[in-house]
Amino acid sequence: MPTLELTTLIPDRTSKEVLDFCLEGVNFPKIFPERVTPLGDIDLSNLRIEAGRQFRFRHWMFNLIPSNWTVTIREVGDTHFVDEMLKGPLRAFRHEHRVAAGEGGTLYTDRVTYSAIGGAFSEGLLVNGYMRRIFEARHRNMLQLLS
Fold first, then answer.
1. 34 close to 63: Cβ distance less than 8 angstroms
2. Which of 75, 72, 78 is nearest to 17 (CA)?
3. Strand (E) or helix (H) holding 137
4. Which of 48, 103, 130, 132, CA to CA, is 20 to 30 A from 32?
Protein backbone atom coordinates (compact mmCIF):
# COMPACT_ATOMS: atom_id res chain seq x y z
CA MET A 1 0.00 0.00 0.00
CA PRO A 2 1.27 3.50 -0.75
CA THR A 3 2.29 5.70 2.16
CA LEU A 4 2.46 9.48 2.15
CA GLU A 5 4.25 11.26 4.99
CA LEU A 6 4.53 15.04 5.35
CA THR A 7 5.99 17.04 8.24
CA THR A 8 5.66 20.77 8.83
CA LEU A 9 7.16 22.96 11.56
CA ILE A 10 4.45 25.04 13.21
CA PRO A 11 6.45 27.88 14.78
CA ASP A 12 5.85 29.19 18.29
CA ARG A 13 3.26 26.55 19.17
CA THR A 14 3.57 23.72 21.69
CA SER A 15 2.80 20.14 20.76
CA LYS A 16 -0.24 20.28 23.05
CA GLU A 17 -1.59 23.39 21.29
CA VAL A 18 -1.21 21.82 17.85
CA LEU A 19 -2.75 18.49 18.87
CA ASP A 20 -5.63 20.26 20.67
CA PHE A 21 -6.29 22.27 17.49
CA CYS A 22 -6.50 19.03 15.49
CA LEU A 23 -8.78 17.34 18.04
CA GLU A 24 -11.42 20.08 17.82
CA GLY A 25 -13.96 19.02 15.18
CA VAL A 26 -14.72 22.62 14.21
CA ASN A 27 -11.20 22.86 12.71
CA PHE A 28 -11.55 19.89 10.33
CA PRO A 29 -13.27 21.82 7.50
CA LYS A 30 -10.89 24.77 8.04
CA ILE A 31 -7.85 22.55 7.44
CA PHE A 32 -9.31 20.58 4.55
CA PRO A 33 -8.70 22.21 1.14
CA GLU A 34 -11.95 20.98 -0.40
CA ARG A 35 -15.52 21.27 0.82
CA VAL A 36 -16.45 18.86 3.61
CA THR A 37 -20.01 18.43 4.89
CA PRO A 38 -20.84 16.48 8.07
CA LEU A 39 -23.54 13.82 7.68
CA GLY A 40 -26.00 12.81 10.38
CA ASP A 41 -26.36 14.68 13.64
CA ILE A 42 -22.74 15.85 13.96
CA ASP A 43 -22.31 19.33 15.41
CA LEU A 44 -18.72 20.29 14.54
CA SER A 45 -18.79 23.24 16.93
CA ASN A 46 -19.33 20.81 19.81
CA LEU A 47 -17.17 17.90 18.69
CA ARG A 48 -13.97 16.65 20.30
CA ILE A 49 -12.10 13.78 18.63
CA GLU A 50 -12.02 10.78 20.98
CA ALA A 51 -10.99 7.13 20.56
CA GLY A 52 -13.86 4.93 19.43
CA ARG A 53 -15.96 7.70 17.88
CA GLN A 54 -17.30 7.28 14.36
CA PHE A 55 -18.07 10.10 11.96
CA ARG A 56 -19.72 10.39 8.59
CA PHE A 57 -19.02 13.20 6.17
CA ARG A 58 -19.20 14.06 2.51
CA HIS A 59 -15.95 15.15 0.89
CA TRP A 60 -16.36 17.03 -2.39
CA MET A 61 -13.40 15.78 -4.43
CA PHE A 62 -12.09 18.53 -6.73
CA ASN A 63 -14.95 20.55 -5.13
CA LEU A 64 -17.23 18.74 -7.58
CA ILE A 65 -17.55 14.98 -6.97
CA PRO A 66 -19.40 13.95 -3.77
CA SER A 67 -17.76 11.13 -1.85
CA ASN A 68 -19.20 9.79 1.43
CA TRP A 69 -16.83 8.63 4.16
CA THR A 70 -17.36 6.80 7.43
CA VAL A 71 -14.31 6.99 9.70
CA THR A 72 -13.50 5.81 13.17
CA ILE A 73 -10.96 7.20 15.60
CA ARG A 74 -8.73 4.24 16.48
CA GLU A 75 -6.35 5.90 18.96
CA VAL A 76 -5.84 9.19 20.75
CA GLY A 77 -2.71 9.84 22.79
CA ASP A 78 -0.67 12.75 24.11
CA THR A 79 1.30 13.06 20.86
CA HIS A 80 -0.96 11.52 18.21
CA PHE A 81 -4.29 10.29 17.00
CA VAL A 82 -5.24 7.83 14.30
CA ASP A 83 -8.35 7.74 12.14
CA GLU A 84 -9.29 4.98 9.74
CA MET A 85 -11.85 4.78 6.96
CA LEU A 86 -14.53 2.16 7.49
CA LYS A 87 -16.46 2.98 4.32
CA GLY A 88 -15.61 5.33 1.48
CA PRO A 89 -14.05 5.83 -1.94
CA LEU A 90 -10.85 3.86 -1.26
CA ARG A 91 -10.15 0.22 -0.51
CA ALA A 92 -8.28 1.26 2.67
CA PHE A 93 -7.24 4.52 4.37
CA ARG A 94 -5.37 5.00 7.68
CA HIS A 95 -4.29 8.47 8.80
CA GLU A 96 -1.85 9.09 11.65
CA HIS A 97 -1.55 12.64 13.03
CA ARG A 98 1.61 13.16 15.11
CA VAL A 99 3.13 16.07 16.99
CA ALA A 100 6.64 16.40 18.40
CA ALA A 101 8.74 19.22 19.79
CA GLY A 102 10.80 20.94 17.13
CA GLU A 103 13.26 23.79 17.16
CA GLY A 104 11.16 26.92 17.63
CA GLY A 105 7.82 25.15 17.58
CA THR A 106 6.10 21.85 16.90
CA LEU A 107 6.65 19.33 14.13
CA TYR A 108 3.29 18.18 12.80
CA THR A 109 3.29 14.99 10.74
CA ASP A 110 0.57 13.37 8.66
CA ARG A 111 1.26 9.75 7.73
CA VAL A 112 -1.35 8.29 5.40
CA THR A 113 -1.44 4.68 4.23
CA TYR A 114 -4.05 3.88 1.61
CA SER A 115 -5.11 1.51 -1.12
CA ALA A 116 -7.22 2.56 -4.09
CA ILE A 117 -9.90 0.62 -5.87
CA GLY A 118 -8.19 -0.39 -9.10
CA GLY A 119 -4.88 -0.98 -7.31
CA ALA A 120 -1.51 0.31 -8.43
CA PHE A 121 -2.83 1.46 -11.80
CA SER A 122 -5.37 3.93 -10.38
CA GLU A 123 -2.98 4.93 -7.58
CA GLY A 124 -0.28 5.86 -10.10
CA LEU A 125 -2.71 7.49 -12.50
CA LEU A 126 -4.70 9.64 -10.09
CA VAL A 127 -4.76 8.82 -6.39
CA ASN A 128 -1.11 9.32 -5.39
CA GLY A 129 -0.99 12.83 -6.87
CA TYR A 130 -4.39 13.70 -5.43
CA MET A 131 -3.32 12.61 -1.93
CA ARG A 132 -0.11 14.62 -2.13
CA ARG A 133 -2.02 17.73 -3.27
CA ILE A 134 -4.65 17.39 -0.51
CA PHE A 135 -2.13 16.85 2.29
CA GLU A 136 0.25 19.58 1.13
CA ALA A 137 -2.73 21.96 1.16
CA ARG A 138 -3.74 20.75 4.65
CA HIS A 139 -0.24 21.56 5.91
CA ARG A 140 -0.32 25.03 4.34
CA ASN A 141 -3.74 25.65 5.91
CA MET A 142 -2.62 24.50 9.34
CA LEU A 143 0.48 26.66 9.15
CA GLN A 144 -1.62 29.69 8.22
CA LEU A 145 -4.26 29.05 10.90
CA LEU A 146 -1.75 28.39 13.69
CA SER A 147 0.81 31.09 12.86
1. yes
2. 78
3. helix 128-146
4. 103
Predicted TM-score (pTM) of this structure: 0.93
Phi, psi of 70 (to 5 degrees): -120, 125
Q: Whole domain around residue 126: which residue ranges?
A: 3-146
State the distance between the two ends of the chain, measured CA to CA, in whole angstroms.
34
Question: How many domains would you assign to the chain?
Answer: 1
Residue 91 main-chain phi, psi, to 5 deg = -70, -40
CATH number at residue 82: 3.30.530.20
The tens digit of pLDDT for each residue in 72-87 reads 999 999 999 999 999 9
**Strands of 3-11's sheet, edge to edge?**
3-11, 105-115, 92-102, 80-87, 65-76, 54-61, 36-38
